[in-house]
Amino acid sequence: MIKHTRGRALRAGLAFAGLLCLSTFLAAAQPAPLMLPPLADPASSEHHAGKAIWLELVTPDLAVAERFYGSLFGWSFHALHNGDFEYAVAWLRDRPVAGLLQRELKSGERRQSAWLTFMAVRDVDAAAAVALAHGARIITEARTYPARGRHAVFADPEGAVFAVLASQTGDPPDYLAEPGEWIWSSLQVPDAGADAAFYQALFGYDVYDLPSDDGLEHVILSSDDYARASVNALPVDAVHRHPHWLNFLRVTDAGDAAERAVAAGGRVLVEPHADRHGGRIAVIADPAGAPLGVMEWNSSESKEEPK
C-alpha cells in the first residue's frame, strides 16, 4: 500500500525565474499534426482517468536536451519533422516516454523551459466543459493527432498548466515504472484543498489527506485503486513560486542522479534527501532550466491507493 507520507516530501521548494509560456509554444506548433507514436501498442481497452500518460518538454535547444536526458536516463530519440519546428520522441527501450519540442527563446524573454503533464481522459471535449465550469481556462484548444488521440491544454484555477489526453489506443496499463520512466507527479499550489477539489471534479479522483509536520496541506489523488499524484500547499512566504506540476522519474540512486545531472550541464534545485517512504528524492533542472524530480522506489512497495 502506498504510504500516506509520500506526497508530503514532494512539497513546493522551488523558486523559478518564470515558467515557460506553454500557450505560445504550443500554438506555434500547430501547422500540421505530428505522427506521434500510439501510447498503447498493441491497443489497450484500459482507461485510467487522471493518470499521467505523457510528458512533453519545450526547450530552446533540442540537441542539448537529448544529450542531457540520454546520458542521465538512458533515453534514445527519434526525430519527427513537419517543416515548421523540431520535435523528438524519447524512448526507453521499446516504450515512448516523452516528447521534446524545440522552441527558441527570444532575447530578453523571462521564460523558462518546462515539462507539460498530460492526464488521461476518455473524452477531451467533455473534460474541457467540466474544467471550464470549475474555473480553468483554455491554453490550447482541443486537437487530434493521428494514432495518438485528442488533447487540449488548460490552466487550472490556481494557474498551474496541464493537459488532458484521450488516447486513441487506450491508456498504458498500471505497472511499476522502471528506472528512467515517470513514476510520480506532484502539484504545488497555494491552496491544496481547493485545487484538489478541482481535479477531483475533473477526473473523479479519490482524495486522501496526508499527515503533515509542516503545518501545510498535502493530499493524495488516486483513481482505479492506484495513487496518481499529490497536491501540496506552497508555503505562505512563497511569493516568487508559481503554481506548477512537478514530475518525477524513477532512479536507482537519487544522489548519483543529481551528481550526473550537474556533470551533464544541469543544476540541483533540491538536494537529495530521504523521503518518508524510505527512499531518497531530489529535484534537478536540465541545462535550459526545466525542473524535474528523481525518486528512488523500493520494488516491493505498491502504489495502490490507501485504504
What does this molecule look like?
By secondary structure, the protein is α+β, with helices and mostly antiparallel strands. It has 2 domains: 7-18 and 176-295, 2,3-Dihydroxybiphenyl 1,2-Dioxygenase, domain 1, CATH 3.10.180; 22-167, 2,3-Dihydroxybiphenyl 1,2-Dioxygenase, domain 1, CATH 3.10.180.10. It has 5 helices and 16 strands. An 8-stranded mixed β-sheet has the order 2-3-4-1-5-8-7-6, with helices on both faces. An 8-stranded mixed β-sheet has the order 10-11-12-9-13-16-15-14, with helices on one face.
Instruction: Please estimate the helix content.
Output: 10-25%
Calculate the mean pLDDT score and round it.
86
Strand order of the largest sheet: 2-3-4-1-5-8-7-6
- The low-confidence parts are 1-29
Q: Count of DSSP helices?
A: 5
CATH architecture of the largest domain: Roll
Work out the strand percent. 35-45%
CATH hierarchy class name of the largest domain = Alpha Beta
